[in-house]
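Possible regression after last week's pipeline update?

I re-ran a chain I had predicted before the update to compare outputs. Posting the input and the new output here so someone can diff against the archived version. Not blocking, just want to make sure nothing changed silently.
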Amino acid sequence: MVKGVMSIKLSDRQHEIIEIVKKEQPITSEQIADRLNLTRAALRSDLSILTMTGILEARPKVGYFHTGRVPFNMLVQYVDNIKVKDIKTRPMVVDGDTSVYDSIVTIFIEDIGTLFIQSEGYLAGVVSRKDFVKHAIGTNDLTRLPVNMIMTRMPNIIMLEDDETMADAIMKMVEHEIDCMPVVEKCNTGDGKERYKITGRVSKTGIIRAIYEMIKA
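New output (post-update):
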């Protein structure tokens, strides 16, 4: 979690208040208390927290409104609790002997920015659109050049595992200036070498979509 940011976890009653305001806005504190069979005094601290965080807006002589805003500290809490396994999507994987030309065709047909390369069923490399552009500008025959000749190889691949968080994914993307990472499962092959099976992918687009769904909800 981002340092220096206080995390606020809303109570069940505060969530209930938000839903009441969403459905019946504008609504007064007396009306909210009546819906919950509570006194105004019992609700005072809940309403203060909800207005302080910007979730609700109080207008004198009118009542409470739902603003639709997501407080920053709640967004931080969200990305720090969502697991990679909940946001990963289907990876696009090709074998290392696939030609660069066929690989380029694949990324355009699938509308993706990154291909994962496998060897004997395990992650062997990663190729991005930038890699393809760099080699397409040269004089190489792309139909004869295998994609494993231009890929970023192990152990220089930045990876994610299912139990890491969305916050971990965001930090890795920013620190390493990458747009997409493979989600992997570590395998014990018995020969002392670490190998990884590709189980998914996490991209910047996928993260933005997950945050959008949270805001919309």
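Follow-up from reviewer: compared with the archived run. The beta strands are 56-59, 63-66, 93-95, 114-119, 122-128, 152-153, 180-188, 194-203. Marking as no regression found.
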